[in-house]
Amino acid sequence: MSQTPADSSEVRSEDAFDLDPVRRWLATVGIDLGDEVEIRQFRGGASNLTYSLRDSEHDLILRRPPSGKKAAGAHDMAREYRIQAGLAQSFPLVPKMIGLCQEEAVLGSDFYVMERIDGIIPRRDFPIEINPADTAALCRNAIGALIDLHEVDVQATPLASMYKGLGYVERQISGWTRRFRDARTPDVPDFEGVMDWLAANQPDDVGACMIHNDFRFDNLVLAKEDPTKPIGLLDWELATVGDPLMDLGSTTAYWVQADDDDFSQLFRRQPTHLPGMMTRAELVDHYCAARGLALTPAQWRFYDVYGVFRLAGIAQQIHYRYYHGQTTNEDLAIFGQAVGHLESRCKEIIG
To answer: What is the DSSP secondary structure assignment for residue 330, as one 8-state letter?
Structure first.
């Protein structure tokens, strides 16, 4: 049995749940938990709630939505479960699914359970000492995982019906514009200038593939024996079939490099500042070279702004819950400031 996950803690009182109904449901999918079960809550992530369930024979992960107001279409546990199950034969980094529960009487909402991938998750700071050469190898391998995902033959998976046809770029701009406006609170900028610029500068789709839409180092699991090697990719809530450059823009929005400003460093959620990591520009060049794409800096600007604006939308949805007292998690207190900072970053990129 693996050790208790290092990045977990006691369950917050507001996020606690009754284990007995979960135990009974797990028995229906072939998992008989022992009498002594350790329940821990993962600190990483600010959207869905993630728990570790461990006994002498099982090492499981339970995912469920947060309480409070939720954006339409967000926190869809059934969708997240089915995406991972549908990729099981095509993309080896997805966790093994155990079961999906849609019986509201069990936890009050849909949830799913999967096997935990035992490895290293590189969150804000890398949890072990790593030298620049290994950091560079990790960076290449991580980007390689994103490239591998984008090259999955979606038509050969059960997920082919997720493709909604051309117009992915437009759907994302209009969708995130609507979501931001719906979640806006009085203490953050309105982003209207940024949203107008995005609407006026939309390119055509460059293709359609399976995209993760939240590809970050802290959603990767690395091998303990070789921390440069990804062995798992987590948090598939936002995954879909869409434009790969939009996915890349979402990734670079989280990518805080060593020379970024102090607030970006404060808000950093992954160790992309370490010596050996690529810069955002180097990341884009590496990705495009590997996939045979020609992209000028002027063409990249749209995806860059989109990624930062989308991150602001996600941060604002989280800040909405904190602002209205729907959560007492003080780790979320910084998100309102982050939204304002991200607007400034969008404007700087637009020029």
So the answer is: G
Residue linked to tokens 């991150």: 311
> What's the CATH number for 132-350?
3.90.1200.10
Amino acid at 342: L
Distance CA 340, CA 185 (A): 12
Rounded to two decimals, the pTM is 0.90
Angstrom distance (rounded) from CA 123 to CA 245: 24
What is the Cα–Cα distance from 140 to 143, expressed in whole angstroms?
A: 5
Mean pLDDT in order along the chain per 10 residues (351 residues) = 63 90 96 94 74 95 76 72 97 97 93 96 92 98 98 96 96 97 96 98 96 96 97 95 98 97 94 97 98 96 98 95 88 92 98 93
Q: Nearest 5°: phi and psi at 112?
A: -140, 165
Residues 6+ apart with CB under 8 A from 106: 21, 22, 24, 25
Map tokens 């749209």 to a residue.
Answer: 302
- Output b/e per residue, 277-301; b: 16+ Cβ within 10 A: bbebeebbebbeeebeeebeeeebe
Pick the CATH number of 8-115 from 3.20.140.10, 3.30.200.20, 3.30.450.20, 3.40.50.300: 3.30.200.20
d(CA 126, CA 133): 14
Strands 59-64 and 97-101: unpaired
| Bridge partners for 113 per DSSP | 62, 99
Q: Which residues contact 81 (CB under 8 A, 6 or more apart)?
A: 97, 100, 112
Structure tokens at 146: 């994103």
Beta bridge partners of 232: 221
Q: How many CB atoms lie within 10 A of CB 232?
A: 21
Tokens of 264: 């970006």
